[in-house]
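Quick one - inputs below.
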Amino acid sequence: MKLLTRTTLIFLLYASVVAGAGTLVYYGLIHKLYYAYVDRTLSRRKLRVQKAMRLYLHRPADLAYWHQLDHNVEFVPLPALPPRRADQLRVRLMHNELTGKSQPYRQLSSAVLFQGRPYELQIRVSLFDTQQLLLRIVLAGGLLFGLLVLGLFGLQFVLNRRLWQPFYALLEQLQRYKLNRNEPVTLPATSIREFQELQEAVQLLLRQNQHVYRQQKEFTENAAHEIQTPLAVLRTQLDLLVQAPGLTEEQAGHIEAIMGVTQRLTHLTKSLLLLAQLDNQLFFPAETVDVASILRTQLAHLQPQVAGRGITLEIDIAASVPLQIHRGLLEVLISNLLVNAIRHNVAQGHLLVRLTPEALTVENTGQEQSLQEAGLFHRFHKASDSSSEGVGLGLTLVQQICTNCGLPLRYSYVAPGRHRQQVLLL
Amino acid sequence: MKLLIVEDEPELAAGMSSYLRGQHYVCELATTFDQAQEMMLLYDYDCILLDLTLPGGDGLALLRELKAQRPEAGVIITSARNAVDDRIAGLHLGADDYLPKPFHLPELSARVAAIVRRRRYNGANLVSVGELQVDVAARVATLQGQPLNLTRTELNLLLLLLANQGRVISKGAIAEHLSGNDAEQFDTYETVYAHVKNLKRKLTEGGAPNYIRMVYGLGYRFDPDLA
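Output:
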């Protein structure tokens, strides 16, 4: 959930509780105030009625007559004088002849004596209009509350969005950030202290990471580079050693073993150097290269390996596929893809090489398990099926070259035991 | 034929000159920038093997200077820098070839031979042993005047062997020569065995003596004296 959504939601929840409860309290208050007012009016009227009873009314018929004139004043004869008590105020429903409906009234009941006979004096006020009024007042109050909440809500939303702007800008930059691109992170100016501190912390972290990364890269590069010269000496001395006349077969065996590991070491340092270079350098000078001809050359060269393992080779190569790319990189890419497909193939397996202007596809039989999760492109990753062959940098190089040259690389496990590497050329 | 080896690593320089002397080249050695500068401008060499990282300066500067004064000089850059840029800069400045370290001596010898041929016998770029003749420019090999039907790889292999006559060429060197320096390698040498076998068969079928000998499983040797 987004930060803004969450704070807005919490705010909205609180505001609606407050608005709802507020409206209720407001209603209760108005209600109480109004009843106090009505009750006071009724009490005053009672005093006036009592005064009139003393001065102007003479017969019981007068009481009935008054009721005829004013329905809101009624004298109900009582059988006996009730014990003295305070006036009663209550709400009662009465049938209204005009509207034909029951309507609520506020009624004051008081026991009075008229010419020695007890009566209950009932004075009423219709609450019908009042209730309507009350409803409207509360509605208006509720509306006001709602507007307030809505306004605050909008304000908070807009304000938050603007306030958090530097944060989101930073986040976006960090999401696009790549350690090997060495691009500076430019951050929008902000006057908010927390964001300033965050930006400073992030800048510091990135600088440190860059530094460590560069150091590591330089180390790899320098180490690989420094190994080249001793390796060159080793190789030349070995090349001279094999010229020695009178070598015994046993000696030759020892030399062969040393030559083998020297070869591997050479290949390893070359791969490391190339990787370091691919990390360092984003663009390699491109020329128009015919992918088809390079592919055919490499396949011809690998023919003995294919035949030696009894692999059925299926080739479907377009006549000519020109591509703007660095020739050396393309050669490494193709060679590594093919060697990988042969090396991890099974005996009597199948190898499909297809080149169209859109894509280069290499599909081979191999272990019966998708390699997606196996860290296929990790440095020094070795497949479980392989012997000691290879140094585990082949596919890493393939991936790195594809990234550098902007060629999408897709691995898919097309069928049980069938792996496909595809390089899109468009 | 005179070569100048510009190389500051003594063992490497010694190894290179030892091998190339055996191929009947006269080798002179320069170990610093200044020494190399002096020698390459004073004397005329058939081919200069130039290292790029030298005490006292950058080999590329040396190359620039050399090409300004002797544009016809043959130069092979032998560098451990192995950088794509260096290769391109070197070739752009007029170097004839670029051989990244570590290289095999037979490979170096083959590259030197190619440059010497190009400079000495421009036009008639022929290599011959007995009845065997290779027209390098036309990429055609003939035996007793009859063309041998060699594939591109077999011809490359033959040229490598001819450039290192009487020398043992290790399987690794052959594999690298055939597949290209940067190609992923197999630890087994099926490719080498297959191509050598085919070449041998084509040579003997054409009536040539058994020039190519396997030396204990280490590699192969082309023996012209057998003829």
